[in-house]
Amino acid sequence: MSSPIWKPNVTVAALIERDGRFLLVEEETEDGLRFNQPAGHLDEGESLVAACAREAMEETAHLFEPTALVGVYQWQRPQGDITYLRFSFAGKVGASDTARPLDVGIVRAVWLTPAEIEASVARHRSPLVWRCVQDYLSGRRFPLDLISTWA
After folding, report:
1. Separation CA 7–CA 17 (nearest Å)
2. What global pTM score does this model have?
3. Do the bridges between strand 21-29 and strand 106-112 make them parallel or antiparallel, or are there none, so unpaired?
4. pLDDT digit string (tens) for 112-121?
5. For 9-146, which CATH class?
């Protein structure tokens, strides 16, 4: 009997900063309300950059243009059942579409300072939330051409 092929869940996250605050989402999870960057899964046939822009719009109703890769993170949930491979992007935030409903499960989008994000670590969806902010604040930026996409 052969075992199934193991694959990590590929996700993208948007590090959206404006005037010293970061745009996070408060979302419903199996562990209650948690904070996360606007983030989600890569869809079939989609580039990582396009997925990040899409997820930011769906979860915050803000236009977002990724301009740099902040980091790639591998994290296994403590339950051991899922491993995430997260690509986090920095970029330019655009206008908000106030009439657009947020994704199912998203309670609100909220602008928080780094101190507020650090103070709420116990309510983060994963340890990647604060780690990505720390990497962004330390100046980590890699050019998008580091990622090659072809169909």
Report:
1. 31
2. 0.94
3. antiparallel
4. 999 999 999 9
5. alpha beta
Q: How many CB atoms lie within 10 A of CB 148?
A: 6
DSSP letter string over 76-104?
Answer: E-TTSS-EEEEEEEEEEEEEE-TTSPPPT
Burial class for 65, CB neighbours closer than 10 Å (0-12, 13-18, 19+)? middle
What is the Cα–Cα distance from 40 to 48, expressed in whole angstroms? 11
For CA atoms 58, 61, 64, 69, the dihedral sign is: negative
Closest CA to 12 of 53, 60, 45: 53
Range list of H helices, the chain: 48-60, 114-119, 128-137
Name the residue type at position 126: S
Q: Are 52 and 12 in contact (CB under 8 A)?
A: yes
Name residue 36's beta-bridge partners: 25
Are 71 and 115 in contact, with CB atoms under 8 Å apart? no
- Does residue 138 have a pLDDT over 80? yes
Q: What is the CA radius of gyration of the chain?
A: 15
**What pLDDT sits at residue 80?**
81
Q: How far apart are CA 41 and CA 82, in angstroms?
A: 13
